[in-house]
Amino acid sequence: LVPHTPRSLHLLDDDYLGQAAHMLSKVGTWNFDIFLFDRLTNGNSLVTLMCHLFNVYDLIHHFQLDMVKLNRFLGMVQEDYHSQNPYHNAVHAADVTQAMYCYLKEPKLAEHLSPLDIFLGLMAAAAHDVDHPGVNQPFLIKTRHHLASLYQNTSVLESHHWRSTVGMLRESGLLSHLPADMSRDIEQRLGSLILATDINRQNEFLMTFREHLDNQDLDLQLASHRHFILQIALKCADICNPCRVWELSRQWSERVCEEFYRQGDLEKKFDLEISPLCNQQSDSVPAIQIGFISYIVEPLFEEWHRFTEPSLLSQTMLDHLHKNKANWSSLRCAHTASDVQGRSQAEEPEGEVGEGADIP
């Protein structure tokens, strides 16, 4: 279960290995604790999870993959995530991959998926944020970063994640035994999936998804329609943190806001305008999360709920989403009340001067 690659750390405690294996038996459950799993695998959650899921779906046999090359590729992907990022790191990639697995098992979708669909879905989930610098696209543009000019200020990060993945695929030789046109097709489809995670294209995908559902014209026998649903599934997996149980959801929320605040501190340091959501003094975690849930997460997951007709999982996710939004609203009220109290105390004079008091 734990790949023996040069990049993997040996698990010295057999008991931990046993616990990790036990967790993998429940990898398709929505309350899967990826933080615990990462600790049990000694920081190898992404590689371990991907090897397990490739075995679950028998992808190694189907595509005649070389295990050494597969381990090398997955090790490269995991290593290329920045562990110093509070949010965009290999644990986030493993979390998105586990969510993707849950979505691939949805009855509405599962019966139509080909081995190639599953391979692409898992690979895109694992690599979708590889080599993320921990800052957003506007930051790269305004600091004239070379990636912004390379990709002409459009889907800068997503294009980089994709091209990095292609580079590692070629370097590892994972697909070198396949016909050239097939490996090129896989690379292009991976790009199409990873580029779909660009949050700037959210409305474009949401409107198309909504139209398909309104018209009831999704035909999952068609490869193009299955690919579109894989794009939507990856988008859902990428932003599903608010749909997790509160204990996990809150950790992710605090991590992503910490990453935003670090960007804001950098912008302050270099006398740049602080980006929206990145000012720790004015952008509270509860306020950021309520906005994110209301404008990005809820609209997408309501349509996913419709697509699944609805499934037990999609209902569970919406229930968590509504509870978590209520929790953040309560915390925002408490946060606002404490701010008001703090300001009023700061404005009160330290002592009253009476009529007979000695005035220096």
Automatic annotation (TrEMBL):
The protein's name in its UniProt record: 3',5'-cyclic-AMP phosphodiesterase
GO MF terms, alphabetically ordered: 3',5'-cyclic-AMP phosphodiesterase activity; metal ion binding
Keyword Metal-binding found: yes
SUPFAM superfamilies: HD-domain/PDEase-like (SSF109604)
Catalytic activity, as annotated: 3',5'-cyclic AMP + H2O = AMP + H(+)
Domain of life: Eukaryota
Residue positions binding Zn(2+) 1: H92, H128, D129, D238
PROSITE patterns, per the entry: PDEASE_I_1, PDEASE_I_2
Residues at which AMP binds: H88, N89, A90, V91, H92, D129, D238, Q289
A Pfam family the protein falls into: PDEase_I
UniProt pathway: Purine metabolism; 3',5'-cyclic AMP degradation; AMP from 3',5'-cyclic AMP: step 1/1
Entry's family note: Belongs to the cyclic nucleotide phosphodiesterase family. PDE7 subfamily.
Record's keyword annotation contains Disulfide bond: no
InterPro entries, per the entry: HD/PDEase_dom, PDEase, PDEase_catalytic_dom, PDEase_catalytic_dom_sf, PDEase_CS
